[in-house]
Design a protein that fits this description.
- The chain has 19 helices and 23 strands.
- The two termini are 53 Å apart.
- Strands 4-5-7-6-8-9 form a six-stranded mixed beta sheet. A five-stranded mixed beta sheet has the order 11-20-16-18-14.
- The protein is globular and about 70 Å long.
- Strand 21 and strand 22 (453-454) form a beta hairpin.
- It folds into two domains: 4-259, Rossmann fold (3-Layer(aba) Sandwich), CATH 3.40.50.150; 276-501, no CATH class.
- The chain is of the alpha/beta class.
- Residues 19-24, 46, 48-50, 53-54, 69-72, 75, 94-96, 109, 111 line the site of S-adenosylmethionine.
Length: 505
């Protein structure tokens, strides 16, 4: 198998990004090839060949003839120079401009390029018009155009498997793709891969596999979600997250919600999203924690001005209560924990000047994040956030009411309330800490192997939250008592839990 990391190092990131070159992990490629060939076809086409992940997986099947298309001659030459067992047919061509071919089965990881970077889009759109009569939406991205074309090229009775970002299930341009997937009898399956997001770093939503079998007819479309490769292998032994009758599926509706139903259904009249109150943003990325994160004793040794050293939570474990108070930060300082961030202004004190020179001697100003800052030691601008949300968790997320001026690094996302949202911060905190809040937020999480759960700021911003009227119904005294209860580690009082239960139907 050709080494993908070596290739990446040789051509560099910008070449790979320009061509949408991200490589399918072998386990995913094997799963897709095995599923497609289980349909009985003896030939397989990969329209976006790259370094041949699917061809490699198909070598395990005897007597299968493999063909591929690849636009980029650099990757093709690299591949050809390093393998003796390439496919029988491998063309250096633009798949989107090479028409009039048919295939018994198709397997693909299409280039993921947003419509703005989809370079020959005009020529492709006019080719689609000429060959299919279809007018593609101007926002159609490259991967969706690949899928549409492949569906058209599949011979009757053929199977197709695509691994790609699933955002087309929710977007306007995806309507054409969904309509094509629903046209005529078939079996249609979507599998969201919570474990493989890194393969598609630019994808804004979920990544997953589309399986389409034109030989069989299943009235229900099945939606699955997997957290690991092992789960993928046994996927059809488990029930889908949802299966939806085709009669209830309209091409112009959003389909992503079928992949993330909450265990409880909500009363739509009582909820909106967290965005009603403000937004979460990620914590500060320093670019060199070993330089910018300091212990109080070091601040003294360096002779920094007070204004150059800001209190900052630098590790999740520094917060042990659901309410962070000034006393907690004083205690961390007394223990000489690393809870200070070096944040110099433009006028450096003598101590800061010497420390910056020390950093330069260590070549920190050449580091990736820092060389784009001016000056390199100028940190990201953030205000202390009144609510903190743990980025990673196992067995339940950490949400903290922050009563201090401390900033946080990337271990926490910080909530920046809007002007009207400020009045609701404590109530929102109680909702997030309640069991109803936890159930409803679970639908917005990303799940990785080993029960690790992650939230990105936008996952939180789009998550379900009660409408202001629901929060306002909580009396001030109840709120104060509940915050005190959480501060003492006693959990959310049952009165508050009961109040939020009204959100569920
Ligand atoms: C996401 S990579 C997948 C590579 C490989 N099949 C895999 O799964 O690891 C997509 C590949 O399609 C190629 N490509 C981009 N645009 C193309 C086009 N219009 N026609 C054919 N190949 C294209 C890229 O150069 C890249 O190698």
């Amino acid at each position: 198998m050709v080494d993908t990391s070596r290739y990446a190092a040789v051509v560099g990131d910008s070449h790979r990004r320009r061509h949408g070159q991200f490589f399918t992990p072998p386990g995913v490629a094997r799963f897709m090839v095995d599923w497609v060939l289980a349909g009985g076809a003896r030939s397989l086409h990969d329209p976006a060949f790259g370094l041949g992940a699917f061809h490699e997986a198909a070598l395990r099947h005897a007597c299968v003839s493999f063909s591929g298309s690849e636009l980029d001659s650099t990757i093709l030459n690299y591949y050809r120079a390093r393998t003796r067992r390439g496919p029988s047919t491998l063309r250096n061509e633009d798949y989107l401009l090479a028409w009039e071919k048919k295939h018994d089965s198709i397997v693909c990881n299409p280039p993921y390029l947003r419509f703005q970077h989809f370079r020959n889009r005009k020529a492709v759109f006019s080719a689609f018009r000429r060959h299919t009569g279809a007018h593609l939406s101007g926002y159609t991205n490259c991967a969706s155009a690949f899928l549409l074309k492949s569906l058209r090229e599949l011979n009757p009775g053929g199977r197709l498997a695509y691994v790609m970002p699933l955002e087309f299930l929710n977007t306007g341009y995806g309507t054409q793709v969904k309509a094509r997937l629903l046209a005529g009898p078939s079996s249609l399956i979507f599998i969201q891969l919570d474990c493989e997001r890194d393969v598609f770093p630019d994808a804004v939503t979920s990544v997953g596999i589309v399986l389409f079998d034109s030989a069989t007819s299943d009235e229900r479309v099945r939606f699955y979600r997997v957290r690991s490769l092992e789960e993928l292998e046994g996927i059809f032994e488990t029930p889908p997250v949802t299966s939806v009758s085709r009669r209830d599926l309209a091409a112009d509706q959003k389909w992503l919600p079928y992949l993330r139903p909450s265990r409880i259904s909500v009363n739509g009249e009582l909820v909106g999203s967290i965005r009603q109150y403000g937004r979460f943003t990620r914590g500060i990325a320093t670019g060199a924690n070993e330089f910018f994160v300091l212990r109080p004793s070091k601040v003294q040794r360096l002779g920094l001005d007070r204004a150059e050293a800001t209190p900052c939570i630098t590790k999740s474990k520094q917060i042990s209560s659901a309410v962070l108070t000034r006393d907690d930060v004083r205690e961390l300082t007394r223990e000489d924990q690393p809870v200070v961030l070096f944040r110099p202004g433009l006028d450096l004190s003598k101590g800061a000047m010497a420390y910056v020179s020390q950093g330069e001697r260590k070549q920190l100003h050449r580091r990736f994040l820092l060389r784009h800052r001016s000056p390199w030691y100028k940190g990201e601008s953030r205000h202390p956030a009144p609510l903190l949300f743990g980025v990673f968790s196992r067995g339940g997320y950490k949400v903290v009411l922050n009563r201090t001026p401390a900033l946080t690094l990337t271990c926490f996302h910080g909530f920046v309330p809007s002007l009207p949202g400020r009045a609701y911060v404590e109530r929102l905190f109680l909702y997030l800490a309640s069991s109803t809040g936890r159930e409803l937020l679970a639908a917005s999480s990303r799940r990785y192997g080993d029960a690790l759960v992650k939230y990105e700021p936008d996952d939180l911003n789009g998550a379900i939250a009660p409408r202001p009227e629901v929060l306002a119904e909580l009396g001030d005294e109840d709120v104060t008592n509940a915050v005190a209860s959480l501060r003492c580690g006693h959990g959310v009082p049952s009165r508050i839990e009961d109040h939020f239960r009204m959100l569920a139907t």
